[in-house]
Each structure stands twice: as structure tokens, then as C-alpha cells.
Design brief:
With 268 residues, the protein is α/β, with parallel strands linked by helices. The chain contains 8 helices and 14 strands.
Amino acid sequence: MRFIYPQGKRKALTFSYDDGQIYDRRLAALFREAGMKATFHLNSGTLEQGEGSVYVGTGELDQVYQGHEIACHGVFHRNPTILSAQQLVLELQEDRKALEKLTGKLVQGLSYAFGNYDQEVICLAKKLGIKYSRTVQGTGGFFPPADFMAWHPTCHHGDRLLELGDQFLKAPDFYELPLMYVWGHSYEFGVSGDWGVIEAFVRKMEGKEDIWYATNMEICRYIEAVRAQEFSGDGLTMYNPTAVEVWVSAKGGILTVRPGETKYIGER
């Protein structure tokens, strides 16, 4: 038995883009039109700065980010590791509250401003209800994170993106739940006017029947559910104690174990 992604997909692809600048409009549309999903980490204190602003306006969030996830990046993009505990609470919690008010949804994701964090930042963010947070430390690999509060991406889009994409498409069968995670800033395309690499990557990766295109939070919730599964002593029966349906590949084919269900899997 091996875990697989929803709908029987073997691999997953996700994106993470920071700062909420106006170039998100084009990037979010590119992903959406290709059937992909991304997470956009916003600084609520910089939204809607008036005419000529480089930031997305509060009134267009639903339109720009339709089908994607909105997550935190701090109210004013302050370095988490130099702030006092009180200042960090305000930077993260007020960002959550503002974005939740604007979207009408729970906002429980984060990316660390400047990629800076330490164990104290992680502990405080978790106490504030944050479920995952992305770093800027590229792994070049395709494994789910050991700790979702220190979620290292596969790569920045400027770091061998197409090469790594080819490797991901050929990920060996013995990889369980392979995941490719790409991060960056949309202004890196918008300011230069060069959208070539991300457009080429999207064309390369779109429409793959074995890839689950998901937001950061969807992947976090699914992997955490996988890790919470319980098994009989012989490993042949599985109980799903979570609220998330979990998919497995076994000798009998692709099986699903619904929330609260106990199912005979038939192999370890």
C-alpha cells in the first residue's frame, strides 16, 4: 500500500508568490487558465495605496485571486526575527484578521518576510493559528516537508525551473507523494517584462493526468491527514480519524478511506 493524492494523482504541484503587487493579476490568470492553483501571500498594510499603486487593491482580491489561496506575509513585511513578541503578534495576527475580513475565509498560511524565521517565530505563529509557513531555502527536491512551519520549497522560479520540472515529470515510482513547490514574486516578471520562463513552465506542466494542482493549504491539510492515519497491528486495516478523505494505491487498485471510516487495505 502506498499513499497517493486525491483523485488517484501520483504527484502534486503548487506555487507560492509574495507581496501582492499588480503583476499578480497576470500571474494568477495564467495559473487559473492552465487549471493550476497557487497561494498568494499578501501584506495587508500595503494593499490599496491609491492611484498608481504597485499593489493590488482590496476591492479586486476576489477577482484577481479567484480559485487561488490568499495567505499572510505580515502587515508591513517586517523582518520577523528582529521584532519583539508583541510586535510580531501585531504583524501576523493583524494581517490574518485584515485578510479574513476582506476575503470572508479563514487565512491560516504564511510565508516569512525576507525568508527570516527562528524557533521563537515558529512557536508564536503556531499559537496564532498559522498552519504552515514557507521559507526561501530551495531544496531542489520533491519531498513533502518534515515540518510545515519550515516548509522549504523546491525552487525559486529563477533557479533551474524548467530543468527541475523535467526531473519532476520523471520522478521515480518509488517516490511517495512527490511534490514540486515553486516560489517567487510576480514583480520579477512584471518589472523586467520577461514572462518567458514561467509561461514555458506552465505550458510544460499543464494538463497532466497524474498531477494534483493544489494550493499550499490543500497540500498541507492532505499530508497532515495522511500522517494521522491509524493502522491495525498487522498494517492491513486503516482507520481515518481526520475530516479529509485519504487515497491509497493497493493490490486491489485505488482505494479511498473516508473521514471516520475503517477499511481493509489488504497489504502493507
